[in-house]
Design a protein that fits this description.
There is one protein chain. The protein is of the alpha/beta class and 941 residues long. The longest helix is centred in the C-terminal third of the chain and has 22 residues. It starts with 5 loop residues before the first helix and ends in an 18-residue tail after the last helix. The strands form seven sheets. A seven-stranded parallel beta sheet has the order 9-14-8-15-16-7-19. Strands 20, 21, 22, 23, 24, 25 and 26 form a seven-stranded mixed beta sheet that branches. Helices cover 45% and strands 13% of the residues. β1, α2 and β2 form a beta-alpha-beta unit.
Length: 941
């Protein structure tokens, strides 16, 4: 701990007296003075002492106002608005104004900015000046909102925190015995800036007999150094290594780390400090909670809504309204550890989630989940009981209809808050496991947020449940919360923002991020107040000159606040390869000669956590033992997909079809490519079930064809809906039916130009054997042609190219596989590209035949120059290669060949869901590719 100087000892001696109050600009500095005061009492040998009266400015004003209000106000005291109440009041003021009719603004964001402008205008006494000048449009709107806000405050007998200092000053001036309710002496510490509002209140306090003194800022003659780093990550790593080295040398040190943009860099500095001070923690499954980490504390909390407990609680309340949520949100909720039976049924619920993913639409409601649970073979009895309890609580039956015996619809914020509590209890929140200290604090803070919601009744007496839930979500999102540590000893390393560091003393201080583009801070005048008024009043950050003036004072304060002060910045801003920009040191620290981190530490910068982890690995050779040979014959599921996956990558074939490995599906709204392809297949199947042959196609009139196709499309959609495609209803089903109708009619018109044929097989299955593998192949269609030979046809709505049949590892082996195992004489194979587009390029047949004229746009291999150049000079050469390549692929699969060998490199891997299993990036160097949507067309397989 930093030793207190003579000036501070005098301050602490004064604080030991009664009715002496020390006031700071923020809570962090007040906490530091309390710790320093207690340390001096311990050093003096005392075992008990009265607590010092040390308060941040806002708390001092509020306490003094409450004391004065009891003395001066004859009636009921004013109600002090909390932040959510004030925000809601500003929103109401904006909605009632003429500007709200424009419909051009986000009311919530406008209300937040208006509240900030109001606080600024009150603090710097800008409102009177705004009444005397011509205002721009935004400022004029703000003045109107402010008047409405003040009128509503008066109607509700309320006051906001921005107005409170002025009200307190009036109360003190109007009271003859104000001194009895105020401290005798007021000590002001850490106020680099004093606003006119504060000046006025301090003058009134002084007139009332309160002695006011300023606590001198620390003036340590410390050594300052400046460091330059290649990038921000290296800078934070160096800072963490320095903090560890200093703490190892003197465990009782008080170390400060200032991060200017703490909100953006909070997670990064926490990660670097964790890796440096507690290496290996990240490898633990449960990780580490900052509140239980005794070595560092970060002043900026995390939004309450970001904690898993609160996030899941809000999701439970949202889901209980029986409104559809995206499946991933439903999935996370079903597996949440914070609902009843989560521990007991953890494995069953994970299996249930996997099953639901296979047949669920992109969105689900509570009633839909309950209905699926009733039909599921997975036993989740506790989950069923929980959902029943929730539905009973909200007044809904299993099919989603309202239950007359259910709870009445809440109408006031307190009723909504109580209702939310009952719903969470029905869910079994916060779960069956015992809560640790951190989780207990989070749950208590959530209850506080619900109490805050109830307090909104003072602003909005009536509120719908959905409005109340939105307000609760806002309250939890705006509330920054940091659980308290289990230990009473303060962490030796304090990570602070800029303003929080003002006035504090440290043994060692490191200030990061002092590049020329970030320090001094850029001017940011409030848009609702004329910039000229802000500059004239000297508002910080209202102009470059005012910002420089303030930041220079802050920098000088840092230089005098510790025995060792380190300033640092990154030479390059931005991620590698992504808009990198070179940066120099801020002009405010450029007078300090730069040095290296190695010189500061007298050692090399320790490697990063990842580098340490990799260096600790030892290479152990593992013999590549052959896998078990499959007995012959072996029936294998998957059909042509077995050969397709083996051709794409031997490991994919092995993992999918021998290990049965697959990624969890992610249900999407609407129809995916496979579902659209399946619908088209079924429509064509039903159409040719009726037409049968080319003669019937030619004989049918246009009206008859339209009726056949329309009925087929309607039936296909109905069957798909019955099988679980929930999205195929209503207007969406009609749109899909119209799409199928147009597409199939266009295809039938195309097939009219063919030579005579008969469709002899549709969506048929045939058992075959290849290299000891017994499998079932499914063929879209086989036609008998006029010469007695046959054509194999595979419907495609995605990519379909003849090249996918070629080579030792064909991409689409289905038709070649069917050809090699067929008993019939096959003279043509073709993809039927049933998709909108130009004939011959996108739409129509794509394939190869033994002779000319068997199928439109399909010719013999001798007529394709690009194939002749690759050695495919005849039909016999092509079919012979098919027999050899397919036989080898089947044999490789049977022998257990499982080498990671993607055929098309990273492109093959990008279309695969097994990368976590094969670790292709480590084995072959292929990383998962970021491919734009649509660059890889899905097939309808």
């Amino acid at each position: 701990m930093t030793t207190a100087g003579a000036d501070q000892l005098a301050v602490f001696a004064a604080l030991a007296a009664e009715r002496v109050t020390l006031v700071t600009p923020n809570r962090r500095l007040a906490a530091w003075y309390k710790q320093a005061f207690d340390r001096t009492q311990i050093d003096a040998g005392r075992i008990a002492w009265p607590s010092a009266d040390i308060l941040p400015w806002t708390t001092f004003v509020e306490r003094s106002w409450r004391s004065m209000a009891l003395r001066v106000d004859g009636g009921a005291p004013l109600h002090l608005l909390d932040a959510p109440q004030a925000q809601l009041l500003w929103e109401q003021a904006i909605r009632k104004s003429d500007t709200a009719t424009l419909g051009l603004m986000n009311v919530r964001e406008a209300a937040a900015r208006a509240a900030a402008a109001w606080t600024l205008a009150r603090a710097w006494h800008l409102l009177p000046a705004m009444q005397k000048i011509v205002l721009h449009e935004d400022a004029a709107a703000f003045v109107g909102w402010s008047k409405s806000f003040q009128d509503q405050c008066r109607e509700r007998h309320a006051v906001d925190s921005a107005t409170l200092p002025d009200l307190l000053a009036r109360l003190i001036a109007a009271s003859a015995d104000a001194a009895d309710a105020l401290p005798e002496k007021l000590l002001m510490a850490g106020f680099d800036i004093t606003t006119p509002q504060q000046h006025h209140l301090l003058r009134v306090l002084r007139d009332a007999g309160v002695a006011i003194d300023s606590v001198p800022s620390p003036a340590i003659d410390g050594a300052c150094v400046r460091l330059e780093f290649a990038d921000e990550q290296q800078e934070l790593r160096g800072c963490a290594a320095w903090a560890r080295q200093r703490l190892e040398a003197r465990p009782a040190m008080r170390i400060g780390i200032v991060v200017p943009d703490l909100q953006r860099n909070r997670a990064r500095i926490a990660r670097e400090l964790t890796d440096s001070l507690m290496p290996g923690t990240r490898s633990r499954i449960d990780g580490v909670d900052e509140a239980s980490a005794p070595l560092f504390n970060i002043s900026l909390g995390v939004p309450l809504a970001d904690y898993a407990l609160v996030r899941d609680a809000l999701a439970m309340l949202d889901f209980s309204r029986d409104r559809p949520l995206p499946y991933l949100a439903v999935s996370a909720l079903l597996r949440s550890p914070f609902i009843a039976g989560a521990e007991t049924e953890a494995a069953a619920r994970a299996l249930l989630d996997a099953r639901f993913r296979e047949s669920s639409p992109g969105e689900l409601t509570l009633s839909a989940v309950r209905g699926k649970l009733a039909k599921s073979p997975v036993n989740c009895a506790q989950l069923i009981a929980t959902l029943d309890a929730v539905q009973q609580c909200v007044g809904a039956s299993h099919d989603g209809r309202r239950n007359r015996t259910g709870s009445p619809a809440p109408g006031t914020p307190p009723e909504c808050s109580q209702y939310f509590g009952r719903v969470l209890s029905a869910w079994g929140f916060p779960g069956e496991r015992s809560l640790g200290s951190i989780d207990f604090q989070i749950v208590e803070k959530l209850r506080d947020a619900m109490s805050t919601l109830a307090a909104l009744q003072a602003i909005q007496p009536r509120m719908r449940v959905d409005e109340a839930l939105n307000q609760l979500r806002r309250i939890a999102g705006d509330l920054l919360f940091q659980p308290e540590a289990d230990t009473a000893i303060p962490a030796p390393i304090q990570v602070l923002g800029i303003l929080e560091s003002a006035g504090q003393q440290f043994d060692a201080l490191w200030v990061t991020g002092l590049a020329d583009n970030t320090w001094p801070l850029a001017a940011r005048p409030n848009p609702f107040i004329p910039a000229s008024l802000q500059r004239g009043a000297g508002v910080p950050e209202s102009s470059a000159a005012e910002s420089l003036k303030l930041d220079r004072r802050i920098t000088e304060g840092w230089r005098r606040s510790a025995n060792e002060v380190v300033f640092s910045h990154a030479l390059v801003e931005g991620a590698s390869g992504n808009n990198e920009q070179a940066r120099a040191a801020s002009a405010l620290i450029r007078d300090i000669a730069p040095m290296s981190i190695e010189s500061l530490l007298n050692a090399q910068l320790p490697p990063s956590y990842v580098e340490t982890l990799c260096a600790s690995a030892s290479i152990e050779p593992i013999p590549d033992l052959p896998l078990a040979l499959l007995p012959s014959p072996t029936r294998i599921r998957g059909g042509a997909n077995v050969i397709r996956d083996q051709a794409a990558c031997a490991f994919r074939g092995f993992a999918r079809h021998r290990l049965a490995a697959r990624a969890l599906e992610v249900p999407q709204p609407g129809l995916d490519a496979a579902e659209r392809g399946t619908l088209l297949h079924q429509v064509l199947n039903l159409v040719w079930q009726t037409l049968v042959d080319h003669v019937s196609l030619l004989a049918a009139s246009e009206a008859e064809l339209q009726q056949i196709v329309e009925q087929a499309a309607e039936r296909a959609i109905s069957e798909a809906h019955e099988k679980g495609v929930a999205s195929l209803t209503g207007r969406f089903a009609r749109i899909e039916q119209a799409r199928l109708y147009r597409l199939v009619l266009e295809w039938l018109a195309y097939e009219r130009d063919r030579t005579p044929f008969t469709v002899i097989e549709r969506e048929s299955s045939r058992d075959v054997q290849l290299a000891g593998l017994a499998m079932s192949l499914r063929l879209d269609r086989m036609d008998r042609l006029g010469d007695g030979t046959h054509a194999l046809i595979d419907y495609k709505t995605g990519v379909a190219k003849l090249a996918s049949w070629l080579g030792e590892r064909p991409d689409e082996p289905q038709l070649p596989l069917y050809f090699c195992t067929a008993q019939e004489e096959i003279s043509a194979l073709a993809f039927a590209r049933v998709k909108r587009g130009e004939r011959g390029k996108v739409f129509g047949f794509e394939g190869v035949s033994a002779i000319e004229g068997l199928l439109p746009d399909v010719g013999p291999i001798e007529a394709k120059a690009n194939l002749r150049n690759k050695g495919y000079v005849s039909w016999d050469v092509l079919t012979t290669e098919w027999e050899g390549s397919l036989q080898k692929l089947a044999d490789d699969f049977s022998r257990g060949l499982a080498e990671v060998d993607p055929k098309h490199g990273g492109l093959t891997c990008a279309q695969c869901d097994l990368q976590p299993l094969c670790r292709v990036a480590e084995v072959s160097g292929y990383a998962a590719l970021a491919i734009d949507e649509g660059s890889i067309e899905a097939t309808d397989e």
